[in-house]
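chain below, 339 aa
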Amino acid sequence: MVKILSNKSLKSYNTFGLDVSARYLAEVHSVDDMRKLIQSPEYKLGNPLFLGGGSNVLLTKDVEGLVIRNLLKGISIVSEDANNVFVKAASGEVWHEFVLFCIEKGWAGVENLSLIPGSVGAGPMQNIGAYGVELKDVFHELEALNLDTLELEVFSKDQCKFGYRESVFKHELKNKYFISSVTFKLSVNATVNTCYGAIKQQLDLMHVENPGIKEVSDAVIAIRSSKLPNPKVLGNAGSFFKNPEVDASFFSELKSANPTIVGYPLDNGQVKLAAGWLIEQCGWKGKVVGNCGSHKDQALVLVNYGGATGSEVYALALAIKSSVFEKFGVEINPEVNVI
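prediction:
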């Protein structure tokens, strides 16, 4: 049987560094481990919490049930042809390490997603994205264990219903499946994407004229490192809020009243706003409230300065959300899962 620990601290298992405890904690290294764990009395208490890298969760209280750490490992080639390689990665693999592995092999497509914290399995749940690329752009399929039938099922891109930081696994199928592996369709003929955000500017600073996937990855890492605090030094979960979307006519009104507002037109006719800009205009950037605050270099990142509770961080998030709505009439919502 899988070893189950009692009254275990989760401080080292969440990137906010919040000192909460789990009534029970188990680690799974395979799908069979997961099947065995489902038969345990601790699992049958209900509402188990799955943790990968613990990088996209805010724990506001002790967990009364079972916490399951996903430690499934392995990367393999499923198939390849002249243009593409299909790569399967176990869901417990560290996302950034997977990206670096692909770059080393010369497989293009995930380089813009460098240094995103978390595990491979969390990628499709969130449809992670950065610098003009989303996971859905390189997604082929995933395998997931049905937690009722204990059978492995395959999900296509359409079945995952990807949206902006959304998927079917955050809604209709929430807590019904355990993602065990993800297969990516990557290119062996690299065409890099350098047109989003500050990538081109960073490449110029690096004196790179003809970037490949390694150079794009290096640029993204440099940008993210300059703006985002290292969770090993300062507890955080990266971007706390999603960038909100508004219709084009409302954006025109906002632009008229706020000429420097940042917005990106979308194919659906909406305009995506920069949540960090909205938060900064409300005076939150660098502000410290108790033991937490909005980071001095990136207002979108909430940080634990040491000793903060999850409830404290959440209260700050709600205050920020309220002030943005009051000033701009725009609702911002957490990207982080609040437990």
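Residues 6 and 110 are 38 Å apart (CA to CA). The two ends are 28 Å apart (CA to CA).
thats it, cya
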